[in-house]
Specification:
Layout (H helix, E strand, L loop, with lengths): L1 H24 L7 H19 L5 H10 L7 H10 L5 H21 L50
Length: 159
């Protein structure tokens, strides 16, 4: 469970830096709508829990699974000290609200691409000007082979 918790934290922190840097560097993934909306939703959940004065649900699950064992493994204890700070709850609420506001600002300043629903089975949308915008491009149909003809007539015979 600690690995999942760390992955969510890494996802959230990575997005805070990757979105503005990626927009500046022209990285297309920072405008991917699914990733951006998941990033916003993740921060919304964290901020809402902090404002409500509740611990993150991942922390609650982790505590339930580990049972607050007295002898915590060294690496786990080290990581816990990195991600669980002994600060008042209002500090976390203010911090998470500020970060959520920052993510909202990033959404406005560096908007994601709109969702595009692709037609089933890779068919064409029929809209003009869609080529070259990152969608899977359809390969042109190969030239059909010439029609089959019988064997050539023997030399000297005409058809």
């Amino acid at each position: 469970m600690l690995a999942v918790h760390l992955a969510v934290i890494a996802f959230n922190v990575f997005g805070l830096f990757a979105i503005p840097l990626g927009a500046w560097r022209g990285w297309s993934f920072v405008r991917a709508p699914t990733w951006r909306w998941l990033h916003l939703a993740s921060f919304a959940v964290v901020a809402a829990q902090a404002v409500a004065g509740r611990a993150c649900f991942l922390t609650v699950w982790q505590d339930a699974l580990t049972g607050h064992a007295e002898s915590t493994p060294l690496v786990m204890a080290w990581v816990n000290h990195l991600i669980f700070w002994p600060l008042p709850a209002w500090v976390f609420a203010a911090l998470y609200l500020a970060l959520f506001a920052y993510v909202l600002a990033l959404l406005r300043l560096i908007p994601p691409r709109p969702f595009r629903l692709s037609p089933p089975f890779g068919g064409s949308t029929g809209e003009a000007g869609e080529e070259g915008r990152g969608e899977a491009r359809r390969r042109p149909s190969p030239t059909p082979p010439p029609p089959l003809r019988g064997p050539p007539p023997p030399a000297g015979e005409e058809k």
